[in-house]
Amino acid sequence: MAPETEIRKAYRLQLAQLGDEVLTMGSMVDKALERSMDALARRDVDLARQVVADDSFINAKRMGIEEGAVILLATQQPMASDLRFITSVEHIATDLERMGDHARSISRLCVKLCAEPPMRTVNEFPRMIASCRERLRLALDAFIERDADKALACARQDVEVDQLQDDVYDLMLATMEKDGSTVVRATYLLWIAHNLERVGDHITNVCERVMYLAKGRRHELDEV
Amino acid sequence: MKIDLHVVVGALISATWFLGQWFLSSVGLAPGTSASSMAMTAPSWTLLTGFVGLALGCFGAFVVYRTDHGRQATSREAFAVSARQLRQSVRNAVAATSPDLMNSDAPASTLIATRLPEEAEPLAEALVDVAHTLEVHRESVERERVRVRQTLASIAEGLIITSEDGRVAAVNPEAARLLDLPGDGSSLVGQSLVTAVRDYEVTETLVKAIETRGPVTRHVRLSPFSTMGELSMPRRGTGVRIVKVSAVPFASQSRMPSDLGVGASRRPVGVGAGVIFLEDETELRRSESIRRDFVANVSHELRTPLASLKALVETLEEGALEDPPAAREFLRLMHVEVDSLTQLVFELLELSQIESGQAEMEKRPVVPISLLEAAYRRLRTQATRAGVDLRMAAEHGLPMISADPMRVGQVLLNLLQNAIKFTPEGGVVTLTAARDGNGIRFGVTDTGIGISREDLSRLFERFFKVDRSRASGGTGLGLAIAKHLVQAHGGVIGAFSLGEGHGSTVWFVLPTNGESVAPVSQQASLASQTRGALPSSDAPDGIPSSAVPGVPATPDTP
């Protein structure tokens, strides 16, 4: 076999680096999600504000990934699996950025909630955030390993967060019916649940991209 | 065309033969001349024999030529075989020192072919010598490698070494523990740092260090995925960690030891060769926060009575002194404040003594019921005054316990005082004692205001008061002291409540053998955490139950 040329070697490195950048962005989003919920649990306004401010780094990271992908497309004109990889990276970065936006929204709601009197513990939130973080990790594992089975398994777990969101919805409605003074706070909590549910949906999108990357065919995983 | 010497010699022989025959025939001595039967003339006979001679000469020359060539070919083949063997020997000698054979027991010298031709023997000997030297070198390298691995494993700090292409070259078990990496982390060697660690703050520290060409340190909050799991509360010990991450780049990014480099190509930007140190500072931060809270709380508790005293003195100065009845009342109030200050200082000293293990426990065999009775007698009047029904219910025939009766009595009194204080008129406070595993469980149950789940987790913290308005008085140190006294006896303490307005029970178990307890019913109390029970061993001082997302304040609505 002919030895790899320097140009080819550099190209391989750039591809690997693009994958690493996605993982880095995944870690940023994971921390933003975890911190937004921690701020909520501890009524820590400073931490919540920090999450809101740090969202700009996630957005910048997305821009960087997109730029890297475009440069690779333009200069290397990749084909087959490499082409799928680069286009998938662009889409995954977009989904991750949206997840970061949801973490920012949760933190903004947390700041508002901290200005209100304390209301009640929502036991569904820890389970929702744990599920989201575990699935995010699983989806990124599937991406790095190009593992379609793992992506499918990850997509299937989305029902859990959906179910929990429904539970929060029922609970909040009951709370509002019982005590009218809780309407504002309960609405904020409902929005938080909705944001977490949307994070789950974006993770499913990542799984779809991984399926495309691994199999070369597009799969709609929303219905699994 | 090249004329071969052999052909020339053959031609000369045949020419000599031809001329000889011609001469003999011309002088009439040729054999053919006597054979008259043969009708052949002398010149034609001569010609024939001449030709035969020429043919014989050529054949002779050909045979000589072939033999010589054959010998040459044989020697060429032999040389080729020797060269092959030699090449194989050299290859073996090199292979013997390669990493693949590092674990092989066969010495390098045996791998060198010994069937070399005689001429190559000196070369073979030289190769064996080289192989021996390499073997010795290899063993010393291997020993060094084992030593480095053991050193890495024994370092208390987490440590990750990366190669130039941003891959993990080495990782020690402590780093694997801190970052929640699989196993001891050795399986991650060769992976890219970003893929292996999955924490951008850790990797970014190294990137910054490489960019600035100097060490970079930052504190990173790590929250592993297992923090929450299925439970609504995190498992203690697996929660958020504060880790000090220090990264140092290798001095020369282009001169890395080759065995650390997994790939040859260098990454244009980002992670390169360097070392990351990880230090767990969770406990340090925790104790810092406790100390900070403690100082803040002490200052607050001291300031309140001092402010009252100052106000009273000022009022007296401004004329109240001239009004003897008012002055007497102010003096009485000043007494109360001074008493509360004295009590606070006394309790602080006591707590610090117990915590530092300086307080001596005069343990002796004690009948549990006598402890209950003593507390009951001392507080009966106070309970009656508060309109609370004080009851006592103890199991018969309880074994003796080894305890300091004064200290255990102090704990019981404290629990009883709290129960009476927080139970409205008409309520009931019950003192109990019963067997529990290898200990005796004492309990104070009331029908009072109850304790919320959030408050339960902080009940035994110093200065924690359920009554946020602090109208009920007290220093907030009583239960913290009680906890340390019970622990000094080898016991456990805990509390549970069905929620606000539903009363509460504070219990402690002391061992009958004077060692430590393993109460049977502790499991039951742990299981009842959903109802809000929490043993104090799970409730850290000063650290709020921090990871229950939601909006803490009141318990769940049923």
Detailed description of the structure:
The complex is a heterodimer of chains A (224) and B (558). Chain A has helices spanning 6-42, 45-76, 80-114, 124-145, 148-156, 158-178, 183-215. Chain A is mostly helical. In chain A, helix 2 (45-76) packs antiparallel against helix 3. The N and C termini of chain A lie far apart (44 Å). In chain B, the strands form three sheets. Chain B has a six-stranded mixed beta sheet, with helices on both faces. Chain B has a five-stranded antiparallel beta sheet with strand order 2-1-5-4-3. Chain B has helices spanning 5-26, 31-34, 42-95, 108-111, 121-154, 173-178, 193-197, 200-212, 282-317, 324-355, 368-385, 405-421, 453-456, 478-488, 521-527, and strands at 158-162, 168-171, 216-222, 241-249, 274-280, 364-366, 389-394, 401-403, 428-436, 439-446, 492-497, 504-511, 534-535. The longest helix of chain B has 54 residues, at 42-95. Chain B contains 15 helices and 13 strands. In chain B, helix 3 (42-95) packs parallel to helix 5 (121-154) and helix 12 (405-421) runs antiparallel to helix 14.
Determine the number of helices of chain A (DSSP H or I, runs of at least 4 residues).
7
Helix-strand pattern of chain A: HHHHHHH
Assembly of the depicted chains: heterodimer
Strand order of the largest sheet of chain B: 7-9-10-12-11-13
Task: Please bin the fraction of helical residues of chain A.
Answer: over 70%
Biggest β-sheet of chain A, characterized? none
Structural class of chain A: mainly alpha
The count of strands of chain B amounts to 13
Interface with most residues = A-B, 44 and 43 residues
